[in-house]
Specification:
Layout (H helix, E strand, L loop, with lengths): L12 E5 L7 H14 L7 E5 L5 H5 L7 E4 L16 H6 L4 E4 L2 H4 L5 H13 L3 E6 L10 H13 L4 H4 L3 E4 L13 H18 L2 H6 L1 E5 L4 H10 L4 E4 L6 H9 L5
Parallel strand pairs: 1-2, 1-8, 2-3, 3-4, 4-5, 5-6, 6-7, 7-8
The protein binds 2-phosphoglycolic acid.
The site of 2-phosphoglycolic acid has 13 residues, from strand 8.
């Protein structure tokens, strides 16, 4: 079902979040090469690989027009006394174009909504595209989980101008579906897309809200990608586990065609 909403993003954005994988530099190079080879030549999807920081310099040499680089996190400062952090200018200087912010695995390690907001602002200054993750821990039958999502959206967009917000990608990743094999149904995702747009409309305006690119993440695989893409109302995927297998990842990319 093609709706006018999608005309803003006729081509999908598919991001592979490698998390803490693979184990070595050689394996990372091999996986990147395998992914590049497996991606269908005629795809119009924008493909981004987000490897661990340490592999970025090497993979930057191999990136191409249809395989861009992302990072899995970013500091909210450019420099300073922040042991272990990597700043936005550093990432940009290696050709990184996207940065995942507020992934639930990082929020579980203590990242706050306020830090997420500061990281978005810092990334935008360096023209990195923030891919900001939101998602509920679990679903209840009363729909309370929608409040959790609304709170996250409000916090991430605090102080942003509509123009800044337009540069942000929001990744809806229900935590219960991450790495568990349990996926939200296309219907769940569609309802959430509508809810996110209506929440953003209240905070900004409808025109802006409808232009934000929304993607889905949580156990996306070859077998569910087409249904989620065609019926979930979002314009791409954030893929974890399945992005570590070149063939499976390529099949997900291939499935991002409007029916
Ligand atoms: P998954 O991870 O595809 O392995 O569920 C998604 C993510 O955490 O971004």
């Amino acid at each position: 079902m093609v709706q006018s909403f999608y005309m803003k993003y006729p081509h999908a954005l598919v991001i592979g979040n490698w998390k803490l994988n693979p184990g070595t530099n050689t394996e990372a190079k091999n996986l990147f090469t395998a992914v590049r080879k497996a991606i269908p030549k005629d795809t119009e999807a924008k493909v981004v690989i987000a490897p661990p920081f340490l592999f970025i310099p090497e993979l930057a040499k191999a990136k191409s027009k249809n395989t861009l680089l992302g990072a899995q996190d970013v500091a909210f400062e450019e420099r300073g006394a922040l042991t272990g952090e990597i700043g936005p200018a550093m990432l940009a200087s290696f050709g990184v174009e996207y940065v995942i912010i507020g992934h639930s695995e990082r929020r579980a390690m203590g990242e706050t909504d306020q830090q997420v907001n500061k990281k978005i602002v810092a990334s935008l200054k360096r023209k990195l595209v923030p891919v900001v993750c939101i998602g509920e821990k679990r679903r209840d039958t009363q729909g309370q989980f929608y409040n959790e999502i609304a709170t996250q959206i409000k916090a991430l967009s605090e102080g942003l101008t509509p123009l800044q917000l337009l540069k942000v990608v929001i990744a809806y990743e229900p935590i219960w579906a991450i790495g568990t094999g349990a996926t939200a149904t296309a219907e769940d995702v569609k309802e959430m897309q509508l809810f996110i747009v209506s929440t953003l409309t209240k905070l900004f305006d409808r025109k802006t809200a409808e232009k934000i690119r929304l993607i889905y993440g949580g156990s996306v695989k070859e077998s569910n990608a087409q249904d989620l893409y065609q019926n979930g109302g979002m314009s791409g995927f954030l893929v974890g586990g399945a992005s570590l297998q070149a063939g499976e990842f390529a099949a997900i990319i291939k499935a991002t065609k409007r029916g």
